[in-house]
Amino acid sequence: MVMLDSLETPAHEIDHAGVNPNTSYQRDLKLEKIRKKKKSVLAKIEGRRRVKDLRHLW
What is the pLDDT of residues 2-47, one digit of tens each? Predict the structure, then answer.
């Protein structure tokens, strides 16, 4: 008998693969947010680099 946390999805709501679709979806959303944040940070850094590279032309 597996004891489920009250926060977890009840056993009958877990799909047959044993994966809770809700939590995997939430995790994907979190990962996507993190990826977007990383991308924007990288873009900012890249943008600063470009500005620095162009400064010597002014």
Answer: 555 555 555 555 555 555 556 677 778 888 888 888 888 877 877 7
Q: Higher pLDDT residue, 51 or 13?
A: 51
Helix, strand, coil abundance in the chain, percent, nearest 5: 65, 0, 35
pLDDT at position 39 is: 81
Largest CA distance in the chain: 72
Handedness of CA 28, 31, 37, 43 (dihedral sign): negative
- What is the three-class DSSP state of 17? coil
Tokens 């994907």 belong to residue: 28
Of 26, 17, 18, 15, the C-alpha closest to 2 is 18
Tokens of 12: 């009958």
